[in-house]
Amino acid sequence: MGLIRAILESVLQTNVGTWLKRSRAGFVCLKQGPESRQVLKRCYSSSQEVIAERITGASHISTHKPMPQLLKRLSRKPQNSRFLFLISIIILWCENDGFAQTGVFVPEMVNVDAVFSNFMNDWNIPGGSIAIVKDGRLVYARGFGYANKESQELVQPHHLFRIASISKPITSIAIMKLIDQGQLNIDAKVFGMDGILNNSDYSTILDSRVKNITVRHLLQHTSGWDFIDGRGDPMFYNSYIAWQMGEEPPVGPVTIIKFMLTTQTLDNEPGTQYFYSNFGFCILGRVIEQVSGQNYENYVKTELLNPLGISEMQVGRNLYENKAPNEVKYYDFPGSSLAYSIYGTGERVPWPYGGFHLEGMDAHGGWIASAIDLVRLLVAVDGFDTKPDILSQSSIQLMTTSSNANSYYGLGWGVNRWNNWWHDGSLPGTSSILVRTANGLGWAVLFNTRPSNRRDFTPPMDKVVWEAIRGIDKWPTHDLFEQVISDARMPETLVKISGDKQEGMPSTELAMPLVVEVRDQNGEAITGISVTFAIATGGGVLSVETTTTDSSGQASSVLTLGNDLGTNSVAVTVIGIEQPVTFVVEAVATPDFDGDGRVGFPDFLLFGVQYGLTRNDEGYDARFDLDGDGAIGFSDLLIFANHFGKPVSS
Q1: Does 142 lie in the same domain as 62?
Q2: Are the beta carbons of 609 and 71 closer than 8 angstroms?
C-alpha cells in the first residue's frame, strides 16, 4: 500500500494532479479495497513488460527515437516511472467497454464523462444519454453504451428514449400555454354541467365531489384519488378496465376516465391531500383537447415544440416493430417477469413491449424524446433571460409554485426552496430525469432500462450529474444548439445531407465526400439551389466551394480535411429556400499511429514520446497541446486518452 500511495502522490505532483483528484480513476487504489490496489500495483510493476509486448511488430512507426532507445529512455528517468504508472491507469480506464461515448468531446467536462460512465457500469445500464445546458447554451451532449445491444448500435445524442413521467411537465407547459392564450382558467371546474369535460362521455358521475375538481387540482395531484386502497393506478389496469367496460383491449384515455367516473369514488376532498396521480394527468390531456380543439399530441407539437425547432419528439408506441426512427431499444432488468399482453391475446410479453399501453399514457407518461430536445424545451420555460421563453413570467411562476398539500411539488414539476425544478420518470425499460437549477444549469438524463430496485435508483440518478459537475472550474463557452438542425426550420422544403465520415492519422489529408439533396414536400427535386461547402479546423477555413443543385436536386463536393487532431467541422450552407439552413457534420483525424485500426496503448505511448513531455522540446507540436497551457504534458495525455482510446470505427 505504501508503494502505491507513494506513486500516486508522485503523480499528483504533476500538472494533472488536480484533474486526477476530481476523477474517480486517480484515487481508485486509495479509496477502494486491497484487491483493486493490488491490481494497480501489478500494472505498475509490469509496465515496461506490457509496453514491450504491445509495441512488438510496430517498429515501422516513425518516431523521434528508435524503439530500443525509446524503451531505454523511458526506464531511465524517475519522472518516466510516473508516466508508466499513468499509462497503466489509462489501460484500465479507456479499454473498458462501458466507456464508449458519442457526441462532441468537451475537455472542460471530462469529469462528466468519467462519472456518468462509472454510474452506468455500477448499475448495469445498457445505454444512456445526457445533455447539459448552462445559461441557455447546450454545452454538453453525449451518448453512452448501446441503443441496441444485439446489433451493437451505440447511443448517439440524438437518439430518442421513452421519458415516462417527464411527460407531466410537458403537459403542464401546454396547460400554461392555454392560460397565456386566454383559453383556460387554472381554477376552472373539469367535470359537471359547468365543467370543461361536460359531454356525454363524462356525464355519469358516481361521486358528486368529482364536480369540484379543478385544473389546478389535477396539476397538483390533489384531485382526491389516491389509489392506495388496493385498486391500483387505473393507467396500468388497461385489460381489466376493457373487460369491465365491454370493450376490446387496449382501451384509450376516454374509456379509462368513464370507468373511473362511473364506478369509483374519491378518497379525499379535492384540493386537500397530495397523492401522485398518473390518472389526473390523463384527464388533463383531454382538457387540452377540449379547449384547443386539437388532438393532445398535435397541440403540443404545434404550440410548443415546432416553434422551438423540435421535430422528433412524439408520443411513443407500444411495440418494438412500431418504434420511431432513432428510438433506442428498451431492456427490463435481468430476471424480470413477463407480462400478459395488453392486446388480450393471453401471450406473455416483455413489460416494455406490450405490458402497458404507452399510446394511452400520452399526457402523463407517453412521450419519447432526445436529451437534447428536452433541454431545448427546458431553456424555453426556465424563467431566465438567456433565451426567450415561450410562456409568460406569470405562468412560469404559477407552474413552479408549490401547493399547501405538498411543499415539494408545483404544477407538474418538483420544486424546492432553492428554486430548483425537476421531474423524474420511470417505466419498465426506462429511467429519466429533467432538472433546472437556480444558477442557470439544466440537464436531461435518459436510460433504456430500469433497475429492479427502482426506488433505490432514483436518488443516485438525481445525484450523478451534481457529482459530475461539482469539479468544473471553467464552463465551455460554445453552444451546441447551434449545431443541431431540425427539419422544422425548413417547412417548405426537405433538405438532406449525406457523407461518409473519414478518419486517419493526423499526418494524412483526408477526402470528405458530401452530397446535399433538396426536394419539396411532394418529393420533387428543386434545381438551382445554392449550396456552399466549407471545412474549418482550429487553423481556420481550409477550403470553400459553392455550387448549385442539379436536375436531380443534388449538389456534391469532395473537401480535403487537414491534419488537425480531432474533429473537423464541415459546414454546409443551403441558400435559396424559405430560410437558409446550415448543417454541421464531423470528420475525424485520429492518431492511429500504428495503423491497427484502433487508438490504443502504443498510440498513447508514442503520443507522449513523439510529441514531447517537456516545454520547448523540439518535438513540441501545438496541435497536441490539448489543454492550451503551452506545454504537452500529462493532462494532454489524459484528454487524448479520453477522447479517443477506442476502435477507429467507433
Answers
A1: no
A2: no
Other C-beta atoms lying within 10 Å of the C-beta of residue 441:
20
Contact (CB, 8 A) for 513 and 558: yes
**Which candidate, 316, 329, 328, 336, places its Cα nearest to that of 451?**
336
β-bridge pairing 581-589 and 503-504: parallel
Nearest by Cα to 329 from 113, 590, 152: 152
Please list, in sequence order, all residues whose beta carbon lies within 8 angstroms of the beta carbon of residue 132, skipping any fewer than 6 positions away.
109, 112, 138, 139, 140, 141, 375, 441, 442, 443, 465, 469
CA angle 184, 189, 191 (to 5 degrees): 120
Assign residue 156 the CATH number of its domain.
3.40.710.10
Is residue 483 a contact partner of residue 584, using CB atoms and an 8 Å limit? yes
Instruction: Give the cell for residue 45.
Output: 510493476
Tell me the torsion sign for CA atoms 516, 522, 528, 530: negative
536 & 579 share domain: yes
Q: Which residues of the chain have pLDDT under 70?
A: 1-100, 228-232, 482-513, 521, 534-544, 559-650
- Does 434 reside within a domain? yes
Q: Of 35, 127, 47, 53, nearest to 89 (Cα)?
A: 47
- Side chain identity at 49, as an amino acid letter? E
Q: Measured between alpha carbons, how far is 163 from 433 in angstroms, rounded to an integer? A: 8
Alpha-carbon span 282 to 446, nearest angstrom: 23
Q: Is residue 584 part of a domain?
A: yes
Q: Is the peptide bond preceding residue 307 cis, with omega within 30 degrees of 0?
A: no
Instruction: With beta carbons less than 8 A apart as the criterion, state whether 495 and 577 touch.
Output: yes
Statement to judge: residues 273 and 310 lie in one domain = no
Cα 445 to Cα 413: distance, rounded to the nearest angstrom? 16
Cell of 649: 470505427
Owning domain of residue 200: 171-293
Whether 199 and 180 map to the same domain: the answer is: yes
pLDDT of residue 161: 98
Place of cell 477555413: 541
Q: Which helix (H) or strand (E) segment is 430 a member of?
A: strand 430-436
**Cβ–Cβ contacts within 10 Å for residue 455, how many?**
8
Query: Using CA atoms, how far apart are residues 153 and 458, in angstroms rounded to an integer?
Result: 26
Residue 427 lies in a domain: yes
pLDDT attached to residue 221: 97
**CA–CA dist 301, 377 (Å, integer):** 11
User: CA 613, CA 636: separation in Å to the nearest integer?
Assistant: 9
Q: How far is CA 47 from CA 85, 89, 121, 283, in A?
A: 7, 11, 26, 64
* Cell digits of residue 188: 376552472
H or E, element range at 399: helix 393-399
- 306 and 391: one domain? yes
Strands 540-548 and 581-589: unpaired
CA angle 606, 608, 612 (to 5 degrees): 115
At residue 434, φ and ψ (nearest 5 deg) are -125, 130
Q: Under 8 Å CB-to-CB from 251, ≥6 apart: which residues?
A: 238, 241, 242, 245, 357, 360
pLDDT value for 566: 45
Question: Whole-angstrom Cα distance, residue 137 to residue 477?
Answer: 8
pLDDT (tens digit, 9 = 90+) per residue, 456-499? 999 999 999 999 998 788 898 888 886 543 332 333 445 555 55
Peptide bond into 250 cis (omega under 30): yes
